[in-house]
Protein 1
Amino acid sequence: FPSTFNVAAFYNDLKDQQIQFGYFKTSGVGTTAIVNAGASTIWGAEAEATVQLMESLILSASYTYLNTQVDELVLPPCPPTICSPISTPNATTAEGEPLPYSPENKFVINATYLLPVDPSWGEMSASATYAYIDDMQAVAEAVSIYATLPDYSLVNLTYDWKGIMGKPFDMSIFASNVFDEEYITSISGTYENGVETGQVSVPRMYGVRVRYNWGG
C-alpha cells in the first residue's frame, strides 16, 4: 500500500520564559500581563503516518508527546498603585510544574473516502476525524483546585466537493464535535481570590462552506 511515515524529536532549553501574570487592579477588575519570569525545558516527539488501503480509502494518524517543565520562576513584585492590596497576584505555573495548556499526549486519526463519481462532476470525498487530547494543567496547582483540565475526545465529519460540475466552486459540509462533548478550554486561575471562571467548549456545530477559486 502506498504510505508515508515521518517522525521528529525536539528539545528546547528556554531562558527568560514568558509567563502569564494574573492580578486584580486597584479597581477590583481582574486582568493579566506577560512577564519574563523564568526558565523552562521542553522536549518531546511527533509522529505521523498515512496509508492508502485502496484506491478510494486513505487513513492517516498523528501522535504528539510533549514534556514541559518550569525550571525557574521568579515573579516580579506588583506595585500597590497597580495591584489591589486585597488580592494575591498569581502565575499560570510554578517551579517544577508543566507549562500551561501543554497536554502530554495528543492523538489524531483520520479516514477519507474518495467517492467514485464521474470526473466531470468534480472530486467528492467524505472524511471522519477522531482526536484525543490529554488532560493538561491550566494554572499553578496552588492557585486553583481546578488547575488541571480533564482530557477529552472529539469527532468531526466532513463532505467535500471540489470543482463542482467543472466550475471553479468548492463546497464543504461539516459537522464538528459530533457527540457534543462538553469540556473546559481555559480557566482564569482566580479561585483563591474568591471566584473562578472558565471558558467552555464550542458545542456541536453544523455548517456549509462555499469557495470560489479565481483563475490564475
Note: The mean pLDDT is 89.
Protein 2
Amino acid sequence: MSKTLREAYGESLLKYGRDNERVFVLDADVSNSTRSIVFGKECPERFINVGIAEANMVGVAAGLASVGFIPFVNTFAVFLSSIGLLGARTFSSYSKLNIKFMGGYGGLSDSFDGPTHQSLEDVAIMRTLPNFQVFVASDEYQVDWLVKNAIEVEGPMYIRLSREATRTIYTPGTLFETGKGKILREGKDATIIANGAMVQFALDAAEILAQKGISAGVVDMFCVKPIDKELILDCASKTGAIVTVEEHSIIGGLGGAVAEVLAASNVKAIQEFVGVNDRHAECGPYSALLKKYGLDAEAIAAATERAISRK
C-alpha cells in the first residue's frame, strides 16, 4: 500500500504552494485530518482555520479568489458538498471564482465518525454545478498531479480524496489530462470503469476474472466532469459490456455519468452499476464496509460476469 491520499495531499499542497504566493489554504477545524495542516505549519501567513464554519470558509475563499488568490478549501467531503454548497454554487459555479474544493474523507473512508459523516452523494452534487470540473483521486501520484493542475488551471474544481491508503497505481511523473480516462488494462469481454479507491479493486477483479478465462479491461475515470466520452464509447463498442464501480451512490455519480454518455449514443452495450444502492451507510472497519455494500473485488467480478451474461 502507498501512503494515504490525505498524506499525499498535504505533501503536494506544500510542495506546489510553498513558493506560490497566490496559494491560500483554508480549513474548517479539521486540518489535522485533511492534512492541510502540513501547509499551515510551513506557511501560517497563508493558512486560515475558520473553525467549524464551512459556509463561511467558502465565503472567505470567494473574497480571496476575487482579488487573484488561489484558495484551497478543505473539510470532509460530506460537509463541503452540503454546508459549503451554496457558496460553491453562487461564488464558483455562477460567478466562476477560482476556488478549489478539496473533499476529504470521501466515500466510506470516514469509517467511525458516524453515518452522518459518510459521503456517498458528493460527486453527484458537485458535477451538476456548471463550470465545475470534478475529480476523484486514485493514488498518491495522481493526487500530486491534481494539486499541481488545480494551481495551474483557472476555474472551480471539486477534488475528492480518501482517508485511506490505496495501492500505488501509477509511477512518478505519470501524465494525466483533464477529461481523459486512463486505460490500465485491456480487455475484450467487458470493461470495468472505476475511480478513486475502487480502481485497485477493479484491477483485482480483472485478475479474478482472468483465472476464469474472462478478459476484462480496467479504466480509471478519475475525471468525472468533463468525462471522457470517446473512451467510454470505444470501450463499449469493443466489449459490449460496461461495469461502473464507485464508492458512492449509484445515483448520479460515475455510473450515472457513464450511462448518460451511452444513452446519448448509438452504441449498444450493457451496463452494470457497482456502488451503494440508495441508502445511507453504517459505520465500521473500512474493509468490512466495502464488503457489506458490495464494493470489494469479488463483488466487482460478479457484476462483470452478470454484465457479460446479459450481452
Note: The longest strand covers residues 241-249.
